[in-house]
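User: I'm curious whether this sequence folds into something compact or stays loose and floppy. Could you predict its structure so I can see for myself?
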Amino acid sequence: MTWHLLTDDEQVSLAQRIRDGERTAEEAFVRLFGERIRVMMTSRIGDAETARELTQDAMVAAWRGIRDGRLRAEERLAAFVHGTARNVVNNYLRARAGEPRLEPLSDEAELRAPDDDLASERRELVAAALGRLSADDRQILRLTLVSGLRPREIARALGLSAEVVRARKSRAVKRVIDVVAELSRTQRGGH
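Assistant: Here's the prediction. I'll summarize afterward.
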């Protein structure tokens, strides 16, 4: 890839054309800066998919900044775009730093609980309840609870919308609770 550096006059011209709403200028803007920003984002966060999303956020923020007149020195367009992208990735990293670090468990991971009868009974009830869910709902719960994925990430992996994932997760959790309660009553009544 050739890195074409813009002269001051080219930066001023491009910024003015963007501010004027010229469609070809917006396409040139994306061609000139999109890949550079994506590479920078990927190197900073190490996740290509998230970097692609953040690149879009940064490009939109920079484009809006130009359209809204926040670019004061038009000959510094490239620095403005880079600074906007840097702010977007820094905000993302700051937000992530405040979150607890999640270490996903493998599917083979064995969860150990105390070896008392009550813990064993609870595990059996939950396993039976999970067995009554559809395979898709079990997968959504596994990706949420074991892998620590967010609905947006699960939606992307399963080809669903985040809203559908949230709704199915909520219904699956409620179903597991209801089935565990039902099986608990049945077992107590049978003793």
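Summary: The chain has a mean pLDDT of 84. Residues 124 and 180 are 9 Å apart (CA to CA).
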